[in-house]
Amino acid sequence: MGPGRVGTSLAMSLEDCGWICRAVVRGGHNHSQLGRLKAVFRSARIVSLPSVVSDDFRLMLIAVQDDKIERVVGDLSALGNINWKSKVVLHTSGTKSIKMLSPLKKLGAATGGLHPIAAFASGYRPESALGIYYDFFGDGTALSCAREIVRMLKSDLLVLKSERQRVILHVASTMASNSTAVAVRAAEHLISRFVRPTDGKAIMACLLESTVRNLAVTDGVESLTGPLVRGDKEVVAEHMKALESEPALLQFYRSWSLLGVELLLRNRSDTRLREIKKLLEAK
Asked: At 30, phi and psi to the nearest 5?
């Protein structure tokens, strides 16, 4: 249910592993999007209402938007043609409580949250669901199913102990992924006045690859480079001056630089870093 980026990519990858997709419950897909779904799921029934779903399935993945989960579960729990005692129901939200699945759990379903810790770009890409980490929180039967899924997808499973852990992990994942994307796009914008867009993307992609390599082989602040590590206040001041015409980017620069300084100060006492911190905090 919810054939968007995550749901469709996950279902496609499971089909590649030998699972059979019995039905796809779509939302407000337009004609073009519906055509792509039919091309992807040639043997599955593509329906607009859960009420026409038959009982011939083992696992239901609910991959709708977070604010629609409760309504979807309510619609499912009202169905009279499904024996939920033999089913596993997983939602893919990284933050919504599995208590939202309680109506189905009361009917006998095994329930849990299986959330992919990965960035799913536009389009349907089954490879996006492979070789990544998933986090899980739920009951034992649902966990067994989640382990089977993750193993077949050649991925790793992180079993969490509380809803709070799920939210914290989601915050951390969002910070790592989206802040990187925002920073790279902002950097491309800065140099777009004198560098062609294609070259800008290539430059930033190359830089990002070297950063990821550093993160993979170093720990903590050892992965940081540049003027903060050197304690070079003059360079930081030049950066800030160059961003004076871009207030939003200047604020972004201040914020992440302050976090970087604080990370560095945890490991060493440095007068130069404290001076940089004062500079960054000054308005």
From this structure: -80, 180
The enclosing domain of 190 has a CATH number of 1.10.1040
> Cα torsion at 253, 258, 260, 265 (round to 10°)?
160
- Rounded CA-CA distance 254/240 in Å is 8
Residue 108: phi and psi, rounded to 5, are: 115, -5
Q: In the predicted model, is pLDDT for residue 67 greater than 80? A: yes
Two tokens, residue 76: 């499912």
- Domain of 273, in residue numbers: 169-281
User: Where do we find the tokens 């995550």?
Assistant: 6
Q: How many domains does the structure of the chain reveal? A: 2
Whole-angstrom distance, CA of residue 56 vs CA of residue 17: 19
Sign of CA dihedral 152, 157, 162, 163: negative
What is the model's pTM?
0.87
